[in-house]
């Protein structure tokens, strides 16, 4: 069982703005795999008032980071609830080598292991423009002043409402986020490359181009990715 399921867990790794969320959701949907974002798991636990959600809230209310142990427990609880052998796409998790080691231990208790780690890679200058250039309308339509600008600068094409530039998309915030990634998360590249789990995906193209490259990389890493869910 461990050998069969080991090839059905993929981690998506990459800097902010590289498209992990978009590509992870699509990969999970088209393969019939579970898409696991710890942000989504945490929000669900808080909403449902689970014991782990209440534990996490204590740290969040105090303005502290939720400890790795709580996040790993959230992930493990979610995995236990999945049908046996179902593929999993981890989106943006783990974020540190310590989290990766804890994830390995949690998966091993379920007879599972990470089968491939897809590094979505794009130049930092491109990532900076993708994030800092985002503008959104109150109705949710998203533009990018560099790649997909509105017809009238600063206003939504559909409603004419002023576009919003979110605080976490401000240039200085984006520089900080990219710097934190290099310091905290980038060491995972070497961690996963050493045992031969890392596959690199060029994420500079459009969404469909990147997805095609991701599909090919995952299939090459383990052909079981082409199998039907639960097979």
In short, what is this structure?
This protein is of the alpha/beta class and 231 residues long. The protein contains ten helices and seven strands.
Structural description of this entry:
Helix 2 (20-31) crosses helix 10 (207-221), helix 3 (38-48) packs across helix 4 (51-61) and helix 5 packs parallel to helix 6 (97-109). The protein has 10 helices and 7 strands. 48% of the residues lie in helices and 13% in strands. The longest helix is centred in the last third of the chain and has 15 residues, at 171-185. The protein has a 5-stranded parallel β-sheet, with helices on both faces. It has 231 residues and is of the alpha/beta class.
Q: What is the H/E string? A: HEHEHHHEHEHEEHHEH
The global form is globular
First-last Cα distance: 12 Å
Q: What's the helix count?
A: 10
Spatial strand arrangement across the major sheet? 2-3-1-4-7
Number of strands: 7
* Beta-strand share of residues: 5-15%
Report Rg: 19 Å
Main sheet record? 5 strands, parallel
Mean pLDDT: 88
Helix content: 40-55%
What is the structural class? alpha/beta
Which stretches are poorly predicted, pLDDT < 50 over at least 5 residues? Answer: 1-7, 224-231
